[in-house]
Write a structure and sequence with these properties.
Rossmann fold, 8-stranded mixed sheet, 14 helices
Amino acid sequence: MSRLARGLLIGLGVVVVLLVGAWFLLQRPDIPYATLEQRYGHADSQYMDLPGGVRAHYRDLGPRDAPAIVLVHGFSSSTYAWNGWIAALAQDYRVVVLDLPGHGLTRGPLVGGRDGFGAVVDGVTRNLGLTRFTLGGNSMGGGVAWVYTLDHPDKVERLVLVDAAGWPANKPSGAAIFSIMRMPLGRALLKDIDTRPLIAQGLRAAYLDPRLVTPALINRYADLARAPGHRDIMLSLQTGPRREARAADLSRIHVPTLILFGQDDRLIPAADGEKFHKAIPGATLIIYPGVGHVPMEQIPERSAADLKAWLVSHPPRS
């Protein structure tokens, strides 16, 4: 063997050793739920046992006799996403926010893929005695909201879609972590390692304003993703079946609908908001220039004020 070949082999061996060492250094175990509940639970956090072994985390705020608004977070997010809106809405409305399986402080499996999210929304609202309510969701939670409205037209009296998911993607997302999760090798690599750098990049793509992407925000996303079972669920969502938005289906939604979209959303294009607006009869569309994927967090006062004004001017249809 030549000296050059021997040197290359030694160099390759060193690289392999370094990569293996880095892999072990990046390993991150699960964080027990008890620890996460102590760290990220709210003073008003409540838990509800549902069929299938799900223990749902939710918050139920505002007057119990007021009109109810149920809000569903997006992928990898949690009830924290709605803090700005809760502050603005809970004086006049009963506001229920919940964590979906694989997210936040909700324990248990996700049965039936994304369709299982609707079952959790239905279980929580049913057990709280909510027979009619306004349903809102952001991103993946927006997809849950419009699907639930189609499946339970007797329960949803108004629909609010905030940068909602559903239409087929024409180009890759602006967050690298989603591209990696779509590859089998990428999912295998992400399952057990520290993903903070990728989480930070994804949050910066969502929030646009880097000042909002604080170390505390990154840590919360990273920690909650390490709840037992959460990583498996979140990775499975990248390959499982999903109901795509179709104009013919959405045309069957006949409740007042508000569509809010950040014009500069890097994860779901604002053009998708236009599609929802065109497909849902009588829908109202508000586009926010200079705003990204999470208007309820980036501009909470302004977006909540728009929502409250719309709620007043669009009473539920009998």
